[in-house]
Hints:
This protein is mainly alpha-helical.
Amino acid sequence: SLHAILHSMTNTTNEKVQNAACSALSVYCEKAKGTLSQELPLVIQVITQCISFYGKRNKIVLYDVISELCK
């Protein structure tokens, strides 16, 4: 579920888990085209939070998620 993905993004310092969660969110956003409007504020809040503590490699994956949201 979306909430499980977002939880995984914010509640770990394990870079592999962060990376997998970002990838999962990207796929979720791609599949949910146009149906994320109610969850979008929460997704944006989580992404904003993650930007502040993710390392360089995972920030790149996070930027891909942002790009997918903008499509």
